[in-house]
Amino acid sequence: MTGATIWLTGLPSAGKTTIAYALAERLRAEGHRTEVLDGDEIREFLSAGLGFSREDRHTNVQRIGFVAGLLASHGVKVLVPVIAPYADSREAVRKRHAAASTPYLEVHVATPVEVCSERDVKGLYAKQAAGEISGLTGVDDPYEVPAAPDLRIESQHQSVDESATAVRALLAERGVL
To answer: What is the Cα–Cα distance from 159 to 27, expressed in whole angstroms?
Structure first.
């Protein structure tokens, strides 16, 4: 069975994790070995102690990319719903996968900041607006939009199921299903 890393990048509350878990459920039902490397869980266990500086964010992305590549090299479809705000960090992960001949697909969940702010799943936008936090990706901290992702999803225009179907179609098209 072919493994692959499918990185879902986008702003906070874009829908990355929701899409990843919906797709994971579908892939598992089809008999695929699948894991979701949830960014919040990774920060709690694998990247505990890291902050949100550019360097710490890069380190976090590299750690997640390493684990994803390891799992993918063993036939697991690894869904990674992690912001990964910097293009050079994402590119380093892509290159490491390419060097190991491990499929890597980048999906940009391109939900506008206004929609993410309305969804505000974790209350981050409200806290930032109230001055309680700073460094919110896409608001007062950079988010470098992928120039050429393998797939761009505008989650505000389709259901979670439609978004998961689009990612699944990409996997089929790229021969990793």
So the answer is: 18
d(CA 63, CA 163): 27
The burial class, CB within 10 Å (0-12 / 13-18 / 19+), for 148 is exposed
CB 153 within 8 A of CB 108: yes
pLDDT digits (tens, 9 = 90+) for 89-145: 999 999 999 999 999 999 999 999 999 999 988 888 888 888 888 888 888 888 999
68 HSE (CA, 13 A, CB side): 33
CA 140 – CA 122 distance, rounded (Å): 17
Q: How far apart are CA 74 and CA 70, in angstroms?
A: 7
Is residue 40 scored above 90 in pLDDT? no
User: DSSP assignment, residue 21?
Assistant: H
Using the predicted structure, report yes or no on whether residue 1 has a pLDDT greater than 80: no
